[in-house]
Design goal:
The chain is mostly beta strands and 112 residues long. Helices cover 4% and strands 33% of the residues. The chain has one helix spanning 33-37, and strands spanning 16-18, 21-23, 30-32, 45-46, 52-53, 59-61, 65-66, 73-74, 79-80, 84-85, 92-96, 100-104, 109-111. Pfam families: YjdM, Zn_Ribbon_YjdM.
């Protein structure tokens, strides 16, 4: 079995080394071994404007969001502090003031 890392673009497992570069035969992506060592390990989540979000950031809701199973609504402009990024469909875990713990989709927020 190979000790080479999976492709950072398409996550294909059968990569190979060519003249000091790692190559993915599936998507054609090339990268150096040092790039692979310095790559971020967690999920990369971007807000509605394309800004990268990180754990602990403060975000602002950009659309009224209905709370499933309740008649309450998270209003536009609601600021949420100290977010946590997770993998999945709802990629932000947070506590919204007045509502409680909730999962949000990054497409409905912007970095504050």
């Amino acid at each position: 079995m190979s000790d080479l890392p999976n492709c950072p673009e398409c996550h294909f497992e059968y990569t190979y080394e060519d003249r000091g570069m790692l190559v993915c035969p599936e998507c054609g992506h090339e990268w150096s071994q040092t790039d692979a060592e310095n790559a971020p390990t967690g999920p990369v989540v971007k807000d509605a404007n394309g800004n990268e979000l990180q754990n602990g950031d403060t975000i602002t809701v950009i659309k009224d969001l209905k709370v499933k199973g309740s008649s309450t609504v998270v209003k536009v402009g609601t600021k949420v502090k100290n977010i946590r990024l997770v993998e999945g469909d709802h990629d932000i875990d947070c506590k919204i003031p007045g509502i409680g713990a909730m999962g949000l989709k990054s497409e409905f927020v912007k970095k504050a």
